[in-house]
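User: C-alpha cells for this one?
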Amino acid sequence: MKRRHRLAALFIIATLPLALLAIPAKPALAASVTLSPDNGEVDSLVHVSGTGFTPGSTFRTYFAYDTTFETASIGIVASDGTIAHFLTIPEAPGGSYEVRVQTSHEYASDYFTVEPSIELSQTSSLVDEQLYVYGNGFRASRGITFRFDNQIVATTATNTKGSFSAIFRVPESELGSHEVTAYDNTYRLSTRLSVSQSISITPDRGPTGTKVTVNGTGFRDDHDITITFDEEEVDTSPPAITSDGNGSFTASFYVPTCLNRTPEVSASDGRYTADAEFTILASITLSPDSASYGDTVTVTGTGFRSNRVITMTLDDDGIITSPVLVRSDNTGCFEVEFELPASTNGAHTVKASDGVNSDSASLTTLPSINLTPTSGPIGAEVTTSGTGFGANKVVTIRFSQSHVRTSATDASGSFTDYFEVPQNSSGNYSISASDGLVTANATFTITTSIELEPDTGHVATLIAVTGTGFTGAVTIRYDEVIVATTSADANGAFAISFPTPASRHGHHSVTVSDSVNTIEATFTMESEAPPVPALLSPENGARQNSRPSFNWESVTDPSGVSYTLQIAPDHSFSTLLLEKQGLTQSQYTLAREEGLHATDRDTPYYWRVRAVDEASNESTWSSPRSFFVSFIPQWAVYVLIVAISVLISVLVSRKVWHKGSKPSPD
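Assistant:
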C-alpha cells in the first residue's frame, strides 16, 4: 500500500511542470503593424507603424519575408510598445509581399503590393533621338515589348528582380504627345512622350551650289511645308512638300550661288518652325578637273570676300589667266580661265586666295600624244608629239601592239619623235606612248581603199576596180570566186577590170586583198525580170501526136536568158507531167521517152513557158494553152497500108480492063 502511495506521489511530482505549462497565461495586448501606403512602386517610401510590442526590445522589419527578395532593418520598440519608421521598397518583381515586424517576444505582419513602373530618360524628344526607358516591378525574367503608340520600337527582358533598362529611337511621328508602353504579358504600363518638330540638313556646310537635303520630323501631319534659305524661299525637289502621316518630310535644294554669309535653313508647316544653320565656305571648282597640255580650264570661285583681288597659282607658281586681273564681285564670286601649261603627269594644285579666305582644287594632268598626219598609207612617216608624261622618262611608241620607236621626255614630261607606218591591213589603229607608268593613245588610219565602176549592172557587165594602199600581188574575188589578179604599183595603187559572172540578183561582195590587207565593196546585180514569152504552137485545143513540138517567141535580157517549159494534165499545173529548165532555144520537141499518152476530148493537156535570166530573175508564166494527143496503133497502120495497097491494085486492074474491053472504031 505504502509503495503504491509512493509511486503516486512520484507521478504527481513528475507531471506537475507539464500541468503548469498547460494552464493558460493571462493574455497580453496583441502586436499589430500598419503600412502606409500598402502598395506602390519600387523605391517608394512606406511608413511602418505598430503597437503591442515589448517596450525597449529590438525589432526587425522584414520586407518580402521568407522569400529570395527578403530585406531587413533594425529598430527599438518605444516605451509605450509602439514602433514607427520608414521603409524604402527594394527592387523586386511585381506582386504582394509580407512585411513582418518581429521581436524576440512577438511579431506582426501586413502586406505591400509592388506595382510596375516605367520611366523615360526625358519626357520630350525629337524624332530619331535615342531615349532610355527604365522599369521596375514587372514579372521576373520576362520578355518585355516596347511600343511607341502602336509601333514596336524595342524588346528586352527583365532581370530576376523584375527590372529592366532599354534603348530605343523615337520613330517618325507627328508633333504632340505619344504613348510609350511596356508589356510583359502580365503587366502593361504606359507613359507619355512629347515629340517636337526639328530639321536636320546634310551637309551643314559647303560652297554655294551645294545640294542640301532637309529631313524634317515632328511637324503637323499632312501639312504643306515651306523651306527658306537666308529668309528667302528656295526651289526644292520635290517642288511641293507635304508632311506625311507621321509629320515627316524629306526635300532638297541647292544653295543659291554667290553667297558669302552664314544663313539659316528654316522649315515651316504654317504654325511650327524649325531651323538649322548652314555655313558657306570659300570654294573653287575646275572644269574640267583633268586636262591635257593646252586645254582650257575654267575656275569658278564662290564664298570669297566681296570685291577682292584673287591670286591664282598652279603648284605655287603663278599662271596666266583670262582676264589677267581676277577680282571677286560683291557676292564673293568670280570666274577665270587659263590654259594648262606643260606639266608632268599626275595631280597638281590650283589655288585661289583673296588674302584671307582660300581654297584649292586638284587638277590632273593627263598624258596625250598628237600625230601628224593622222592617216596615210603603209610606209608613211608620222611625227609624234607627247606631253603629260613623267619627267625624264624613256617612252616606248607602239603601232597597235608593235614597237616602232623609243624616245625620251624632258623635265616637263614632253617629247617629239617620229615613226614609219608598218605593214598592216587598212583601218584604224591605236598608237600608244608609254613611260612605264602612264600611257597615252591616238588613232592612225591606214588609208587602203577600193572603188567599183559601175557598182550595179547585169551579168557580163565589165567592172573596173581601182585601189590604193595595197602592196605586192592583189587578188580580186567576186563573192568567193577569184575573177582577177594584178599587182600594186610603187604607190600601192592598181586598176583592173573583169566581167560580172552569172550570179543571183541582189548584193554581191567584191573583195580585194594583198598579203596584209583585205577590203570589200558591194556590187548590186540587176533584179529586173525578162519579158514573158508568147506561145506560138501548138494552137489552143490542137491535136498532136505523142511527141508534139512546142514553139514560142524568143525574148532578150541583158543578163542572158533561158526558158522553162511545163506540161500538166490540169489548168492549175498542180501536177506536172514534164518540166524542162534551162532551155536555150525557143522551141522544144518531146523526146521518145517523154512521149505522152492519148487523151479523150474532155481531158486535154496544158503547156506554158517562162523566161529566166542568168541573174535568176524569172518572168511570170505565159498564159497556158491546151492540146490533145491522138494516134493510130501500129497494127492499125499496117492494116491500113495493106488496105490501101489492095485498093490501088484493084483500081489499076479495073482501069486496064476497061481499056481492053473498049470496042474498036472499026
